[in-house]
Design brief:
The complex is a heterodimer of chains A (about 110) and B (about 110). Chain A has about 110 residues and is mainly beta. Chain A has no helices and eleven strands. In chain A, the strands form two sheets. In chain A, strands 2, 4, 5, 9, 10 and 11 form a six-stranded mixed sheet that branches. In chain A, strands 1-3-8-7-6 form a five-stranded antiparallel sheet, with no helix packed on it. Chain A is globular, with a radius of gyration of 13 Å. Chain B is mainly beta. In chain B, strands 2, 4, 5, 6, 9, 10 and 11 form a seven-stranded mixed sheet that branches. In chain B, strands 1-3-8-7 form a four-stranded antiparallel sheet, with no helix packed on it. The termini of chain B are far apart. The model of chain B has no long low-confidence stretch (mean pLDDT about 95). Classes of the chains: A mainly beta (about 110), B mainly beta (about 110).
Chain lengths: ~110, ~110
């Protein structure tokens, strides 16, 4: 079974709205990362949050981590058409464990 | 900026052919990874390497092998391509601390 599961699978919003994506995982982690993938391209790292952090910001991105619930959320504020992409969470459970990516959330931002 | 390049963006091969996918990174990263990406399944790790001439199996190594003769280059080999290996293949690299992974643009492989 997968460590990371994003929710929802797909999300469609209007430009200027906020987009929230969630990630749940099953085991203890060292850190959790969010990546973006534009259609047919490689993944681009967005933000990393460590297990002892609760919230992190980067530009229009806000990530929260709740280790008691084993979940994370990615908030994109004031979305733009250029934010249209798939977003993946990846969990790092530590040495000897592989990174595990979820199936992703497909975000469409309509102009 | 870290740059990870992959030898081909698109590749079409026949069943039974031997296929080489090459990945090169220019930032002296110790770690390199090969993933395959299929709709609804996310990324699945095939093989990874923490050092030259070193390799470790990931979650789905069957039907694949790898080679890392130089630090900057990590090759994925399909010994005898099969149709179920049609997929997007992504290479990534990271520093020894295992944190942020930097991805190449991907190779979309079609096996007929």
């Amino acid at each position: 079974s997968q460590q990371g599961e994003e929710d929802p699978q797909a999300l469609s919003i209007q430009e200027g709205e906020n987009a929230t994506m969630n990630c749940s995982y099953k085991t203890s982690i060292n850190n959790l990362q969010w990546y973006r993938q534009n259609s047919g391209r490689g993944l681009v790292h967005l933000i990393l949050i460590r297990s002892n952090e609760r919230e992190k910001h980067s530009g229009r991105l806000r990530v929260t981590l709740d280790t008691s619930k084993k979940s994370s959320s990615l908030l994109i504020t004031a979305s733009r058409a250029a934010d249209t992409a798939s977003y993946f969470c990846a969990t790092d459970a530590g040495y000897g464990q592989n990174f595990v990516f979820g199936p992703g959330t497909r975000l469409s931002v309509l102009p | 900026d870290v740059k990870v390049t992959q030898s081909s963006r698109y590749l079409v091969k026949r069943t039974g052919e031997k296929v080489f996918l090459e990945c090169v990174q220019d930032m002296d990263h110790e770690n390199m990874f090969w993933y395959r990406q299929d709709p609804g399944l996310g990324l699945r790790l095939i093989y990874f390497s923490y050092d030259v001439k070193m390799k470790e199996k990931g979650d789905i190594p069957e039907g694949y092998s790898v080679s890392r003769e130089k630090k900057e280059r990590f090759s994925l080999i399909l010994e005898s391509a099969s149709t179920n290996q049609t997929s997007m293949y992504l290479c990534a690299s990271s520093l020894q601390g295992r944190e942020t992974q930097y991805f190449g643009p991907g190779t979309r492989l079609l096996v007929l």
